[in-house]
Amino acid sequence: MGRRWLAALLIVSPEDRASLVAEIERRIVAEYGGRETDKQEVRVIGPEVQRDGYSERIETVYEVKPTRVSQGAREPEQGQA
Q1: Model-level pTM?
Q2: How many angstroms separate the CA atoms of 58 and 45, rounded?
Q3: Quick one: which H or E segment has residue 6?
Q4: Angle between the N-to-C axes of helices 14-32 and 2-11, in degrees from 0 to 180, rounded to the nearest 10
Q5: pLDDT tens by residue, 13-67
């Protein structure tokens, strides 16, 4: 999916990319930013590896930390351009 986003951004003129990313970021935060989720972690489970007499699968758990909106994605305050 990351490749698709990058390919789409390359179609946009270089002068407009930063503002487009800021607008997309703003919309995502507006739509999904305030939602509470039950999941506070991400589990990554690796492939099963056959060892001598047993098989092994490594599972790594990452804690999901709250994110903040980047400075560039904020709306300008009234009176500023």
Answers
A1: 0.41
A2: 6
A3: helix 2-11
A4: 130
A5: 999 988 888 888 888 877 776 666 566 777 888 899 999 999 999 988 888 776 6
